[in-house]
Design goal:
- By secondary structure, the chain is an alpha/beta fold.
- 41% of the residues lie in helices and 11% in strands.
- The chain has a six-stranded mixed β-sheet, with helices on one face. The chain has a three-stranded parallel β-sheet with strand order 2-3-4.
- It is globular, with a radius of gyration of 23 Å.
- The protein starts with 6 loop residues before the first helix and ends in a 14-residue tail after the last helix.
């Protein structure tokens, strides 16, 4: 006879809710004692490595094998370093360098930082092939636009991260690269046949699975080649048929944020959750926007009701809960073996991070590419303090809260007296060129852009400004699809490390990377 008395505990086991605050709320601690299998940390939960270690220690006190997840891509999308910007260059820069050993080293370095703070699951790497340059949500988060390149670096990232005892997560299955729609807002359509998907989107996921990736995250994507009705997160043909049976993945399947409009608008939070589990998902990520006990209770109760009504087979729920438990056992055993668990438990006595800070900064320096016309030869380094204009496009919602980016601060550090301004499209006014050039007279001019190819207004303004100031240096901190100006610098990302690398090149100065951040004051 089924033991329905266990259902609330099993239902809680498959949830990975978010919460507010930098300490564990009472409700989360209580739920961990009642079966909750994991939590998801966001930028709002992070102040410092020491604080995160103290937070995760609170969680482990209630459940030693709790899965503590974070969306830390070590690039433009960063939660662990959201207050400063990432000290690593991000996926597109690593793909531009195309040194798999370096990618593995950067991922291992990241994994050590996360493990030492008690984090056990990282929603990374982004395994998408950014084959559509107009993609509004992937871009620099991908290793590149070529399937085999993305595959080899995805596998390297998985190996590096997991060697530190942090479970890697290949996302967004079966591939979010060939879309011009952001699944945070609507359902993207991947209009490719099975042969095309096999030649492109699925290649990196096969490589990640072969590398032993422990987790795969679903994409809220409509892929008619496999399911014409349901997005991948809710599709049994995609998750069970393709991912489990055809690709042979036996690890944990976790959803992208279940509150994203691509699934929530039509099915609701509870409906999407139940459908995802029935399709083959093992864990539900929620709490980016709904970080409260009421939402967690809503989902838990919906799962229990679905089992009791027969909508969700109890065996499917038990299988999902078992995979959550097995992943918790693996992370606990691995982090204990590496010594990371002892480091996390010793806070605040431990004073510094274990990683070598120069790894990420050196990688960012290797990624920088300069394109110069004959007129631009000899213009680097610039002569004296510069004026920096940073053009801010609409924010990528995947990045979350705005993290520090740009060249104004790092260039002023290297060339004291450098001035800077950040402008949105709305700031340009009736005379955009005059607005941009204000304050630049007699100074080298540096124009900083992100994904200029996706924003017509930015391309227009940049062209007009360059006609007036052809000596200006253009720095592209997004995807360098369009090259403009006599001197063009591509950083392949807008992280703190990328900004520092470009600033050093412009100033003609290379200085040691900043020291590791302290775990405790």
């Amino acid at each position: 006879m089924p033991n329905h008395g266990e259902l609330p505990e099993l239902a809680a086991r498959v949830l990975q809710p978010g919460f507010a605050g930098t300490t564990a709320p009472d409700w989360v601690r209580r739920w961990l004692g009642e079966g909750l299998g994991g939590v998801a940390l966001f930028a709002r939960n992070v102040e410092s490595p020491a604080q995160v270690a103290a937070l995760t220690a609170q969680l482990r006190a209630e459940r030693p094998d709790v899965l503590v997840a974070i969306d830390e891509e070590a690039g433009d999308v960063t939660r662990f370093e959201s207050r400063l910007g990432s000290s690593r260059p991000g996926n597109l820069a690593l793909g531009a360098i195309d040194d798999v050993r370096l990618t593995e080293e950067v991922a291992h370095d990241l994994g050590c930082d996360l493990a030492n703070a008690g984090i056990t699951l990282d929603y990374a790497p982004d395994t998408d092939v950014n084959s559509n340059a107009a993609n509004p949500v992937i871009g620099v988060r991908a290793f590149g636009a070529e399937a085999q390149l993305v595959a080899r670096h995805s596998a390297a990232f998985v190996r590096g991260l997991q060697s530190a005892g942090v479970a890697a997560c290949a996302k967004h299955f079966p591939g979010h690269g060939d879309t011009s729609v952001d699944s945070h807002h609507d359902v993207p359509l991947i209009d490719r046949d099975r042969a095309q998907l096999e030649e492109c989107e699925l290649v990196p996921f096969r490589a990640a699975i072969a590398a032993g990736v422990r987790v795969v995250m679903t994409g809220h994507l409509l892929v008619p080649a496999y399911d014409a009705e349901l997005p991948a997160t809710l599709s049994r043909p995609i998750l069970t048929g393709l991912l489990r049976e055809e690709l042979g993945f036996d690890g944990l399947i976790v959803t992208d944020g279940i509150e994203m409009q691509a699934v929530r608008r039509r099915y609701g939070l509870a409906g999407a959750t139940v459908r995802a589990l029935a399709a083959g998902v093992d864990a539900i990520c929620v709490g980016g926007d709904h970080a409260d006990e009421q939402t967690a209770a809503l989902l838990r109760d919906a799962i229990v009701a679905a089992v009791r009504s027969g909508e969700l087979p109890e065996e499917r729920l038990r299988s999902a809960a078992a995979r959550v438990r097995r992943l918790g056992e693996w992370t606990t055993a691995t982090q204990t073996a590496t010594g990371a668990r002892a480091v996390a438990d010793s806070t605040p006595e431990v004073t510094v991070l274990s990683h070598t800070a120069s790894v990420g900064f050196d990688a960012a320096r290797r990624a920088v590419r300069v394109t110069a016309t004959a007129d631009g030869a000899g213009r680097l380094p610039v002569d004296g303090p510069a004026h920096v204009v940073e053009f801010a496009p609409p924010r990528n919602i995947a990045i979350g809260a705005e993290t520090p980016w740009g060249l104004g601060a790092p260039l002023d550090d290297l060339l004291p007296g450098t001035t800077s301004v950040r402008l949105t499209e709305d700031d340009l006014g009736a005379d955009p060129v005059a607005t941009v050039l204000d304050g630049s007279a007699g100074r080298p001019l540096v124009l900083v852009v992100r994904d200029v190819h996706r924003h017509a207004w930015l391309a227009d303004v940049l062209g007009a400004v360059l006609a007036r100031r052809p000596d200006a240096v253009v720095v592209e901190m997004g995807v360098p699809e369009t090259v403009l100006g006599a001197v063009h610098i591509a950083t392949y990302g807008a992280t703190r490390a990328c900004g520092r690398a470009a600033a050093e090149l412009i100033a003609g100065t290379r200085v040691p990377a900043p020291a590791p951040q302290p775990l405790a004051a």
